[in-house]
Recover the amino acids of this structure.
C-alpha cells in the first residue's frame, strides 16, 4: 500500500498510554496504525505487550516510515518481529529487499542512519533494530 | 595473557565459504561475540558499569546514548549484529539468504573494529584476506 507523506504525522499523533485512557486501548490503536506501514509477524498480544514494556518504540516506528522509504525506496515491505532470547528481547524492523536490489543495501542503510536514526536511536533503549534482509525472490 | 577475542573473527572468517547451515550460523555468532567483547572492553574503559542480565542490550543502548558519533555508530552496528546473532542461535525456521547474512556480518565486524581503532587514534587491524 502506498501512502502519502502526510499520513505519517497522523500516525505519530496516536496517544501514548496515559492514566486517562486504558493502556490496552492505546496500544491497540498504535498497532492498527503500525499495520498500515509494517507487516507484523507476531501476534497482536505479543506486540502490544512489547510496546507496553518499551513505550518509546511506537513513536520511533511511526517516525521511521518516511525515512525508510527515502533510503530504500517506496513500496518496500518492512517486517516487524520480536526476537526473544534468554538475555532480553529486541524488536526488529527489517526492510525486505530483492537479491537484485540495485543500490548497495549497506549504503541505503547508512543513508537512513545519517539522515535520521543516529539522531534518534538514543530514544530506543537498545530495544529497536532497523535493518534489511535480502530475499531470494520477492 | 588475556584471550584475544579477534580469534573469534578469524574463526568466523574461516567459515565464510562453508555452505553448511550450522557452520554459517556459527560464523554469524562468532563474528558477533568478537564485536561484543571488543565493544564491552571499549565501553568499560569509558565508564560503562552495568552488569548482567541483559548486558548485550544494555551495552549497545549505552553506546547509542553517548555524544561521540563514533560510539553511537558502534552501538548501532553492535545491535544489528546482535540481532543477526539472535536469529542464528535461537530461530529454528530457515534464515533467508544466509550467505548474504554471513557477508554482511563479517563486513560489519571489520567496520566495527576499524571504528574502535579510530576512536583510539590507532590503525585498524589488518583486513582478513578475501
Amino acid at each position: 500500500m502506498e501512502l502519502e507523506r502526510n499520513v505519517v504525522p497522523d500516525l505519530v499523533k496516536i496517544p501514548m498510554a496515559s492514566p486517562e485512557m486504558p493502556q490496552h486501548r492505546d496500544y491497540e490503536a498504535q498497532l492498527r496504525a503500525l499495520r498500515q506501514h509494517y507487516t507484523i509477524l507476531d501476534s497482536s498480544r505479543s506486540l502490544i505487550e512489547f510496546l507496553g514494556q518499551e513505550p518509546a518504540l511506537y513513536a520511533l516506528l511511526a517516525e521511521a516510515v518516511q525515512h525508510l522509504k527515502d533510503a530504500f525506496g517506496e513500496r518496500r515491505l518492512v517486517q516487524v518481529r520480536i526476537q526473544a532470547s534468554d538475555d532480553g528481547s529486541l524488536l526488529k524492523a527489517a526492510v525486505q529487499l530483492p537479491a537484485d536490489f540495485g543500490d548497495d543495501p549497506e549504503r541505503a542503510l547508512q543513508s537512513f542512519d545519517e539522515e535520521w536514526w543516529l539522531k534518534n536511536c538514543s530514544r530506543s533503549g537498545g530495544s529497536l533494530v532497523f535493518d534489511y534482509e535480502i530475499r531470494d525472490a520477492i | 595473557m588475556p584471550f584475544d577475542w579477534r580469534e573469534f573473527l578469524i574463526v568466523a572468517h574461516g567459515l565464510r565459504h562453508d555452505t553448511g547451515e550450522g557452520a554459517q550460523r556459527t560464523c554469524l555468532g562468532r563474528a558477533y561475540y568478537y564485536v561484543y567483547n571488543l565493544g564491552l572492553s571499549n565501553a568499560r574503559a569509558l565508564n560503562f558499569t552495568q552488569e548482567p542480565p541483559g548486558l548485550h542490550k544494555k551495552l549497545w543502548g549505552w553506546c547509542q546514548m553517548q555524544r561521540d558519533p563514533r560510539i553511537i555508530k558502534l552501538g548501532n552496528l553492535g545491535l544489528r549484529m546482535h540481532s543477526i546473532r539472535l536469529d542464528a542461535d535461537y530461530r529454528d525456521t530457515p534464515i533467508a539468504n544466509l550467505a548474504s547474512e554471513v557477508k554482511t556480518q563479517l563486513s560489519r565486524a571489520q567496520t566495527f573494529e576499524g571504528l574502535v581503532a579510530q576512536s583510539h587514534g590507532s590503525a585498524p587491524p589488518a583486513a582478513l584476506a578475501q
